[in-house]
């Protein structure tokens, strides 16, 4: 039956990791979070702090120079960074999203070449699936890759690419056989410095303003054939398999943002006085906080269970990945909105962090598949 004392709780290593990341985030990321949002600029301070502590891509296996953190540890890192700054949490999250196709399906040479610089903090990795006319219907993409001897030539436009322009490496899904729809899509590693790669203007967004979101233009980008990830025609399957794992990191981002908002609101209601006493004394306020904490904990437990399934690659991972992302992001939207409510008029201003957290939370219901798409995925993979 195993050791009763270890039944259903995090290991000491996971608890210690949380403490470390929380301390780092509070000291080096929180102080810049408001400015990063206000100025819509990349959180360079966060990147430097994460790289200095080897936390920018903890998922990279030890055999490729990484920390070899398990899926739960990766979730904890993202959660704690997101508690301080949603934009900054996309550094570890998208480094995993961009590189996981290589880890799951890439050749030994690709892994060696691209994972080591990521683990050293010398390069970031982005993931290019979406296009202007292919969002939820990602298999309807138009970006083409055509074979030319020992090379592939890529042409097309990828849209909404997180950390585009900052990342050195890009996993790009492109059509290699238009007859076969999803089975005619292949994945490639494209480098920022490849001739013919360029970027659109940063999108002007509601939230996660510190995380650059840009179009990626591929104009006759000629890359060696060995940059293909896995076999020809397997790119879409790899892209979807990747999302099974990384939707859990979006759930982590969502619960981190929500925890940041709850923590702030919890402190505020004890200080703010109306009717001669702290508003925390009103049962109506207490009930709101209780509901927020209850929902958030349920989301966290589902996310951690999903992370364990990701680590073990359980057969019900697809359901759990979608469920964790969908549930945690809906909870994050509710909790952050309630946090704004608990601060009253002050919550509605940029003088307090909770409106930023509410704006940042919204994206978690949209990317890596909207929550409608998650429900489609869950319905097709009911446990
Ligand atoms: C800030 C940001 C960062 C992003 N980062 C990345 C990235 O790094 N890499 C990447 O590849 N993509 C990225 N995306 C793209 C994101 O994954 C897509 O925006 C998302 O998948 C939705 O696609 P769409 O925007 O085209 O919406 P659409 O697919 O046009 O959806 C519009 C609405 O229709 C609904 N809908 C669509 N189809 C159905 C259906 N069958 N049933 C029910 N409802 C449906 C959707 O749920 C949504 O509410 C990012 C997006 C944003 C905004």
Could you write a compact summary of the structure shown?
The chain has twelve helices and ten strands.
CATH superfamily of the largest domain: Butyryl-CoA Dehydrogenase, subunit A, domain 3
Neighbour order of strands in the largest sheet: 1-4-5-8
Radius of gyration: 21 Å
Q: State the end-to-end CA separation.
A: 25 Å
What are the distinct ligands in this entry?
flavin-adenine dinucleotide
Tell me what portion of residues adopts beta-strand conformation: 5-15%
Amount of helix: 40-55%
The rough form would be described as globular
Q: Indicate the low-confidence ranges by residue numbers.
A: none
Sheet/helix structural class: alpha+beta
The CATH C-level class name of the largest domain: Mainly Alpha
**SS elements, strand count:** 10
**Total DSSP helices:** 12
Count of spatially separate domains: 3
**CATH architectural arrangement of the largest domain:** Up-down Bundle
Average pLDDT? 97
Name the helix and strand elements from N-terminus to C-terminus, one letter apiece. Answer: HHHHHHEEEEEEEEHEEHHHHH
The biggest sheet amounts to: 4 strands, mixed
- CATH names the topology of the largest domain as Butyryl-CoA Dehydrogenase, subunit A, domain 3
Explain the overall architecture.
With 383 residues, the protein is α+β, with helices and mostly antiparallel strands. The protein has 3 domains: 4-120, Butyryl-Coa Dehydrogenase, subunit A, domain 1; 125-233, Beta Barrel (Butyryl-CoA Dehydrogenase, subunit A, domain 2); 236-380, Butyryl-CoA Dehydrogenase, subunit A, domain 3, CATH 1.20.140. The protein has 12 helices and 10 strands. The strands form 3 sheets. It has a 4-stranded mixed β-sheet with strand order 1-4-5-8. A 4-stranded antiparallel β-sheet has the order 2-3-7-6, with no helix packed on it. Strand 2 (144-148) and strand 3 form a beta hairpin. Helix 4 (71-84) runs antiparallel to helix 5 and helix 9 packs antiparallel against helix 11 (354-362). The protein is globular. The chain starts with 11 loop residues before the first helix and ends with a helix. 50% of the residues are buried. The mean pLDDT is 97. The structure holds flavin-adenine dinucleotide. Residues 126-130, 135-136, 160-162, 205, 208, 213, 363, 366-370, 372-373 line the site of flavin-adenine dinucleotide (FAD).
């Amino acid at each position: 039956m195993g050791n009763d004392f270890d039944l259903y709780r995090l290991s000491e290593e996971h608890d210690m990791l949380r403490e470390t990341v929380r301390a780092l985030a509070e000291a080096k990321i929180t102080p810049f979070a408001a400015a990063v949002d206000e100025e819509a600029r990349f959180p360079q301070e966060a990147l430097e702090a994460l790289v200095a502590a080897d936390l920018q891509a903890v998922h990279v296996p030890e055999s490729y120079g990484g920390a070899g953190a398990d899926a739960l540890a990766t979730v904890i890192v993202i959660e704690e960074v997101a508690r301080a700054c949603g934009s900054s949490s996309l550094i570890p999250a998208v480094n995993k999203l961009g590189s996981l196709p290589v880890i799951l399906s890439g050749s030994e040479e690709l892994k060696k070449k691209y994972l080591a610089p990521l683990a050293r903090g010398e390069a970031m990795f982005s993931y290019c699936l979406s296009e202007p006319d292919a969002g939820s219907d990602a298999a309807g993409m138009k970006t083409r890759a055509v074979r030319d001897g020992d090379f592939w030539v890529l042409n097309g436009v990828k849209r909404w690419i997180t950390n585009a322009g900052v990342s050195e490496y890009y996993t790009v899904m492109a059509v290699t056989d238009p007859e076969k729809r999803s089975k005619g899509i292949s994945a490639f590693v494209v480098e920022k410095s490849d001739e013919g790669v360029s970027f659109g203007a940063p999108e002007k967004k509601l939230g996660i303003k510190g995380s650059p979101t840009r179009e990626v233009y591929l104009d006759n980008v000629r890359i060696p054939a060995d940059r293909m990830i896995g076999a020809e025609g397997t790119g879409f399957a790899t892209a979807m398999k990747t999302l099974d794992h990384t939707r859990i990191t979006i759930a982590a981002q969502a619960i981190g943002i929500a925890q940041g908002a709850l923590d702030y609101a919890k402190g505020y209601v004890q200080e703010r006085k109306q009717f001669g006493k702290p508003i925390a004394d009103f049962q109506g306020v207490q009930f709101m906080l209780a509901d927020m904490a209850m929902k958030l904990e349920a989301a966290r437990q589902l996310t951690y269970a999903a992370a364990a399934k990701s680590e073990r690659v359980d057969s019900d991972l697809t359901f759990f990945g979608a469920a964790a992302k969908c549930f945690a992001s809906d909870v994050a939207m509710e909790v952050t909105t309630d946090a704004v409510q608990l601060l009253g008029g002050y919550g509605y201003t940029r003088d307090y962090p909770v409106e930023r957290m509410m704006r940042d939370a919204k994206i978690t219901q949209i990317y890596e598949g909207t929550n409608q798409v998650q429900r489609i995925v869950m319905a097709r993979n009911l446990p």
